[in-house]
Structures are given as C-alpha cells and as structure tokens.
Amino acid sequence: MKSPPWALVLAGGAARGLAHAGVLNGLEDAGFPKPSLVVGTSIGAIIGSLYACGMSPKELKHFVIEEFDVTDYLDSFVFKLDGPVGRVIQTGQALASLAGKPGVDSGKRVFELVKKLTAGKTFEETDIPFRCNAVDLYTGREVVFKSGSVARAVRASMSLPVFFEPLFYRGMCLVDGGLSDNIPVSIARNEGFDRVIAVNVNRFVTLKEKDLKNGQQIIYRSIESMFHTMSETKAQADVTLDATDDSSLVSFMRQRQLVRLGEKTVTKNMAVLEEFFNPRPTLIKRSKQIIRKINE
C-alpha cells in the first residue's frame, strides 16, 4: 500500500540540530517512505534544505561527522570552540564587535556552503518540496519562503540575532525563524498536510542561580527559554521525536554523538512511527482475513 503524504518538520537549536542528520538516516534505515514536504527553521532549515535538494541521509551523516568543522564556516575571530561545552562567543570581544555592525559573524561563509551543497537550486527545483521561515525585524512578522534561492532563504532562517548579521533582502531585515516558530508545524498544516512528524532537539531543564552568572549564560538561556515557550504554544505535530540530550547550543564538536542520538531516537520511537506509517492496521488485518476466506 502506498503511504499517504506526510510532512517532516525540523526544529532549530544550533549545534543540537546536527541530530537531524541522524533522524533522517534512522528513518531511511527503517524503510519508512520519504516525506512529501520538508520544513525547517535555523539549523533545521540547513539540514532540511540539503536533504530536500538531493543529499541522501547517508551523505548527510558522512558530511556532518567526517567533513563538518564549524570553524571553517565562520569568518569572525571572536568565534571559538573551547572548554567542555564549547564557546561560540568570547563575550567581551563579541560585544565590542557589535558596536559597529549588526552581528558578530557575517554569515557569508555559511551561505556559500549551503549554496554549494544545494547546487544553487531554487525552491522550484528541489527533489522534495521545501519550506523554511524567518522573521522580518521591521514588521515583526514571520516570513515563509517557498520560492527563489534555497540558500538565500536558509541564510535568513539561520540568522540568530547577535551571532549572525541579519539578511537585508527586498526591504526586509530577516533573522532566525526560531524567533517566530522554532518547530514550524503550522507551515506544513497551511500547506494542507494532515500528517506531520516533527523533530525537537531542545531540552529545557530548571536552572539554579549559580548557572546564570555571566552574559553568555544569560544569552544562551534566553534562547532556550524562547524555544521552550513557543514549542508549548504553537501547532503540534501528530508525532514529535525528541532527539535531546545534555548538549549545549554550541556543542558543534559533538557531531558523532548528536548524529547517533538522532538514530537512537528513531529506534526508540519505532512503535509510534510504525503506527504513523500504517495508520489503520486493524482494517488491513480485517481485509486480509476477508481475502483469505474468499480464497478458501
């Protein structure tokens, strides 16, 4: 039986979103059908766009684990990865650099990477229909991309304020889509999809006073709080896979662990996924019984 159309929604979450590559690989290994629509925001838009443009889950997994080094795609000297959880910003230097420009990093190198890996495709040319979102700071409204350059749309969707400069495009000041909807199930619903699987990569735990002692910690916690609040108030998916662990937003050096986390998440939720892709097992069983009786 041909599986009904379904949409896959990939959440934002900075480094945590590398788990999306593992989820895609796990779904393929399990033999589940490909989605009819891929929706993503921020890192989910990056991974989703590569998949939608033709990169296989195996290729994505290889790229994330073997080839991806975040420092190769950042052009600012203030971006570093050191310490047990990794630091993306050296706080004092970052704040100083923001005095004369709208973001710590220009985002140009990431844009060029996505452009290369998507082969410069437009939304009209993707192998699987793709959508991503951003927020226009001038108007405060969500912008959903469904035409034009995929790489440009992804560049807008991943522009987390402070970390990356906004994308100034067609009279808009575009920043990370996660500010509006970090798990944009509503985009899939608005496209007419009744069956939606979402992948959440953010874990929210209660902190203590000792955990919030500096500006860097406050920034990261503010982002996490925003993601958490929106995930509780926005449209919900039929199935939500929680690919979460104790990784921080900047744990880019944990590629292998995060990809494995995504694969384990699929395995852990196999029963739920089987039910999703075979929504009427009772009817199918009954049909087989009828056919058997007819043959007898």
How does this model look, in words?
The protein is an alpha/beta fold and about 300 residues long. It contains 11 helices and 10 strands. It has helices at about 20-30, 45-50, 55-65, 90-95, 110-115, 150-155, 185-190, 215-235, 255-270, 270-275, 280-295, and strands spanning about 5-10, 35-40, 105, 130-135, 140-145, 160-165, 165-170, 170-175, 195-200, 240. The strands form 2 sheets. Strands 1, 2, 4, 5, 7, 8, 9 and 10 form an 8-stranded mixed sheet that branches. Strands 3-6 form a two-stranded parallel sheet. Helix 8 links the parallel strand 9 and strand 10 (about 240). Helix 1 packs antiparallel against helix 3 (about 55-65) and helix 1 (about 20-30) packs across helix 9 (about 255-270).
User: What is the H/E order?
Assistant: EHEHHHEHEEHEEEHEHEHHH
Give the overall average pLDDT.
85
Q: What is the number of E strands?
A: 10
Unreliable residue stretches: 77-92, 282-296
Structural class: alpha/beta
Radius of gyration (CA) equals 20 Å
Q: Give the distance, in angstroms, between the N- and C-terminal Cα atoms.
A: 23 Å
Number of helices: 11
Summarize the amount of helix as a percent range: 40-55%
Shape type: globular
**Strand share of the residues?**
5-15%
User: Largest sheet, described in full?
Assistant: 8 strands, mixed
Features:
alpha/beta, two-stranded parallel ribbon, 296 residues, 11 helices, disordered C terminus, 10 strands
Give a quick rundown of the structure.
The protein has helices spanning about 20-30, 45-50, 55-65, 90-95, 110-115, 150-155, 185-190, 215-235, 255-270, 270-275, 280-295, and strands spanning about 5-10, 35-40, 105, 130-135, 140-145, 160-165, 165-170, 170-175, 195-200, 240. It has about 300 residues and is α/β, with parallel strands linked by helices.
